[in-house]
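FIELD: query
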Amino acid sequence: MEKNVTYNFKKKMQSGDKVFGPLIGPGNDPDKTVEAIKRFGYDFIILDNEHVLINEETVYNYIRAATETGIPLLIRPKDKTAIVRCYLDAGINGLVVPQVNSLEETLHAVDQAYFPPMGHRGYGIPESPYVTDFMSPNEHPFLSLTEYVNNNTAVFPMTESLENISNLARILQLEGVTGTIVGTFDLALNIGGIDPKASPSDVINSKTVEEKLKQVVGICKKVGKIAGIGGFPPEGMARWAQEGYRLFGIGYVIDGNVDSLQPLIEETKSLMR
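FIELD: result
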């Protein structure tokens, strides 16, 4: 069993490397999906529980498959106020929290995700072997286990509003926050002023949105945290990689279409070389 998968994932980003991961929706086989994603060269997975329906038993099967395959598994919960302790205690490696606007909302996620001293996570380590990669709670010091979990946890409050951007420097400086991921379409909706005739591509490539995306990555660079982005095709991802974004949400898996990810990741990486 591979150890410190999420810890090494965070270190990879912090060293300046780019990482790629798809969103997972409903209608997929966890084992086949996770195996294919890892084989195609993706670095992480996000389960989408905000916009689609994935039941808890299926989430557990993804946890098992991701742990056995050695790829970090994050979840985007239903809401920023959602109680997600059961997912974390089952073995989820991190949170991508939607619609976060303030430091207080970020603290809610950090408190759930991390054991003291960073957060106030309750002790549920014995409930699932995937939390500590099968290290027995009876054979390791108590604090070494909580430290291992903290090291292998990531928290990304999403940037999807102007209010978030105004508070982003403070949000990112909070201990336990790995970085932010921009929800580009939601940010555009929050900014407003969209031309009724504009296509989705027109919207996210507008001058106003581009200015805010540059502002976000600038804040991340200044604070020393990871800037992530989604919503763009490969050529758009390559453009924002040049600006300093390091994490890229690319591809959506639904109803067994996982094979469609391979040409997508290959094109994206090719454009970023």
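FIELD: remark
The longest strand covers residues 247-253.
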